[in-house]
Structure to design on (784 residues):
């Protein structure tokens, strides 16, 4: 069956073997593209043509499977010919050429990015971390401890009796909070090597928790406060925050590099830092909830943590008053929005 | 495979003078001679010393149109969790190629997104393993680094091969003819400083208390690296620009390491000078405002008790960033423009030469404008910035030809691997301009 021939168009033909151009006429007939010109007569299956897409600027180049090419610098003439020859357009091309579509896409993009940030990425990082065995956490934690121990911290100067007492109290509280399956943990007492760390406590992936002598001294050895702080750190361990932050940071980095391309490393770092800060706050809230849970299970009023924040604020004032820069610890003290957290613990205490 | 082009790569000392004379002839009467028909049998003797054609490069892309393409690409890439990326890349390249007119004829891009997807998945896996290894343990990280260093040159070559083989002009494909061995010779020296450093580190028994010779060794390696950087860069660019091929023509980079050292020194000079200028300007500003600022700091310090110190620290940090940014603002466009001119004006052969004349001030203006609008629009200006920069950089390049273009005929070439192309994106390999 011979289909009726479509409209014709004059274009430049290159045979793929030489750079010579040939003026030819092309038209579609049935499932074939017919090319005819001075000494040239070809019939190419439509499926063997890599068709150009409609754009407002730029020439049209159709590549043939055998290496030949059709060039047309009059884009509108080509587009009209393609339309009249029954060449359809993909949805993507129509969207690219319509400002109305593009407006909708900008809105959709903002929604996708927001949803991805608020739910998608946290969910995905949980899923990824759930798949990874606990030994990954331990390996990372061990590597981190090795780089900290000796450099940033040194062995504790607390009397062994006090260490043992705190340890026993913490183990009791953990057993009361999670009678069946306590998260893996190992409590280490350390002392800051210089003043940079200060009163601090931090948890490493895998369950290693470090408590500094300075923190014990800051709260005058108040056991309930220390248990609250350790409960918070155990919360980080239980939720595997270390590994999750790693996964989230990687994914955020990939997304920002996709969105911003290779424009500037400095600029691409801004959304990364802001995004990570948001996730860090969420992680703190989760850990605070675990802290409250542990304190309640151990029969301690969450008010203890309110006292802790007051002590920290006081220490911060004292330090900067003495001329030292007000840099306080990494983990607990520098967390944003202390007021919110104080309110949270107060509320937990009144319930 | 035969190498018909070897015959005319012979060095040609008087080439720069030739270009100068062509330049003064101007752009007139350029494209008109292109369609003069010549019998294809004239191929071996297509070189014609009386012929000088200047083929202008024009870029017709528009920022607003690329914005529409970009935003659709972006949404589809995000909702498909990245699987759409090769299709997005093909659309982008086809737009940029189709809008690059060399002597009135557009470039074409033929890459098959499905093939590229396979490459991307492979390289993504490699990337994930590499990142994971680094945070897992130092030894695993080192191992991953060695593996990537050993794979990278092969991927680099593959990337260039793929990109060139899928780019065409007037129906003929470009080719990249560098060998895998050449890629290793071009790239492995770049890893040498890191390897030496790693070896030095491994020789230190206690990392916390390095022996006395460690600092000297470390400084020595760093100094040698800095000193050899222009040489390493030249070595890499020489490999790239010696092996671009189109039809029976193959390019050659006719610049020695000396010109690279000169350029790097000048770039360093501009960087230091702009730093000095910025510093003097700031000092002047402080001299004028100094008293007021001091009072303000003292006041803040005396007030609520602790803000003074923090304000001073923040001020210092902000100043530091401002100075380093301002130093970059001048030095980067300077280096970019001079480097492009050096690289491309010295690329070619007896029959075909490039001539790049990218000026510093227009590039500086475009860079500043891009930065400002990127920040104001929270990144939405990116496609406009890209188009503006591409136009400026491409349109400053011209081609001078002493061959009848109709006499150019296709040569057999290799496709290259799509995985190489993906690796090019992942490791930031820059092809072309």
């Amino acid at each position: 069956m011979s289909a009726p021939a479509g409209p014709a168009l004059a274009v430049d033909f290159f045979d793929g073997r030489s750079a010579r151009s040939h003026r030819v006429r092309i038209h579609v007939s049935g499932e074939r593209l017919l090319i005819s010109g001075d000494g040239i007569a070809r019939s190419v299956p439509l499926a063997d043509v890599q068709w150009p897409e409609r754009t407002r600027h730029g020439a049209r180049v159709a590549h043939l499977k055998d290496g030949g090419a059709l060039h047309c610098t009059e884009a509108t003439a080509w587009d009209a010919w393609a339309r009249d020859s029954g060449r359809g357009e993909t949805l993507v091309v129509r969207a690219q050429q319509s400002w109305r579509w593009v407006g909708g896409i900008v809105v959709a993009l903002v929604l996708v990015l927001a949803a991805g940030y608020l739910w998608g990425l946290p969910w995905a990082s949980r899923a990824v971390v759930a798949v990874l065995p606990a030994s990954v956490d331990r390996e990372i934690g061990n590597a981190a401890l090795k780089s900290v121990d000796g450099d940033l911290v040194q062995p504790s100067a607390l009397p062994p009796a006090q260490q043992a007492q705190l340890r026993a109290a913490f183990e009791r509280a953990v057993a009361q909070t999670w009678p069946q399956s306590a998260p893996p943990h190992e409590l280490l007492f350390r002392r800051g090597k210089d003043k940079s760390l200060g009163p601090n406590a931090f948890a490493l992936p895998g369950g290693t928790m470090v408590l500094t002598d300075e923190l014990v001294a800051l709260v005058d050895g108040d056991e309930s406060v220390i248990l609250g702080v350790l409960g918070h750190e155990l919360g980080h361990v239980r939720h595997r925050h270390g590994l999750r932050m790693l996964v989230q940071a990687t994914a955020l980095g990939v997304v920002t590099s996709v969105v911003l391309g290779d424009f500037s490393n400095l600029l691409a770092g801004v959304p990364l830092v802001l995004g990570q800060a948001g996730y860090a706050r969420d992680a703190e809230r989760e850990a605070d909830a675990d802290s409250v849970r542990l304190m309640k299970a151990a029969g301690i009023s969450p008010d203890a943590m309110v006292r802790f924040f007051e002590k920290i604020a006081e220490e911060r004032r004292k330090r900067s008053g003495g001329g030292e820069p007000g840099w306080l610890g990494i983990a607990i003290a520098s967390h944003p929005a202390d007021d919110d957290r104080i309110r949270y613990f107060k509320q937990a205490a009144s319930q | 495979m035969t190498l018909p082009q070897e015959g005319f790569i012979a060095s040609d000392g008087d080439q720069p003078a030739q270009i100068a004379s062509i330049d003064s002839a101007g752009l007139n009467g350029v494209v008109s001679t292109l369609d003069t028909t010549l019998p294809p049998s004239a191929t071996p003797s297509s070189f014609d010393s009386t012929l000088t054609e200047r083929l202008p490069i024009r870029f017709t892309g528009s920022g607003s149109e690329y914005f529409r393409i970009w935003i659709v690409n972006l949404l589809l890439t995000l909702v498909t969790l990245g699987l759409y990326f090769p299709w997005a890349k093909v659309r982008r390249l086809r737009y940029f190629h189709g809008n690059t007119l060399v002597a009135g004829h557009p470039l074409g891009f033929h890459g098959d997104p499905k093939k590229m997807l396979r490459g991307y998945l492979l390289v993504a896996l490699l990337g994930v393993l590499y990142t994971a290894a680094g945070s897992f343990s130092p030894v695993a990280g080192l191992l991953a680094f060695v593996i990537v260093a050993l794979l990278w040159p092969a991927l680099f070559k593959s990337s260039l091969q793929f990109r060139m083989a899928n780019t065409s002009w007037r129906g003929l494909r470009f080719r990249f003819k560098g060998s895998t061995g050449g890629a290793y010779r071009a790239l492995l020296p770049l890893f040498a400083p890191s390897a030496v450093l790693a070896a030095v580190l491994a020789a230190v028994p206690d990392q916390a208390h390095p022996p006395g010779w460690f600092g000297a060794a470390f400084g020595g390696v760093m100094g040698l690296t800095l000193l050899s950087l222009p040489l390493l860069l030249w070595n890499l660019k020489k490999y790239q620009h010696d092996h671009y091929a189109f039809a029976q023509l193959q390019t050659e980079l006719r610049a020695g390491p000396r010109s690279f050292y000169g350029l790097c020194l000048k770039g360093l000079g501009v960087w230091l000078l702009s730093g000095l200028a910025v510093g003097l300007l700031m000092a002047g500003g402080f001299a004028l405002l100094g008293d007021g600022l001091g009072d303000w700091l003292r006041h803040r310090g005396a007030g609520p008790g602790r803000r003074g110190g923090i304000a001073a620290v923040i001020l210092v940090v902000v100043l530091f960033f401002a100075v380093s940014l301002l130093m970059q603002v001048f030095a980067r466009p300077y280096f970019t423009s001079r480097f492009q001119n050096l690289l491309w004006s010295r690329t070619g052969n007896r029959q075909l030469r490039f001539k790049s004349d990218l000026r510093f001030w227009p590039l500086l203006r475009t860079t500043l404008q891009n930065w400002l609008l990127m920040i104001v629009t929270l990144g939405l200006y990116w496609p406009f910035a890209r188009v503006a920069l591409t136009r400026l950089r491409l349109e400053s390049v011209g081609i001078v030809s002493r061959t009848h273009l109709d006499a150019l005929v296709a040569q057999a070439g290799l496709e290259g691997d799509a995985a190489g192309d993906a690796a090019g994106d992942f490791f930031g390999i820059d092809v072309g301009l």
Notes: The first strand of chain B starts at residue 53 and ends at 59. The first helix of chain B runs from residue 15 to 25.
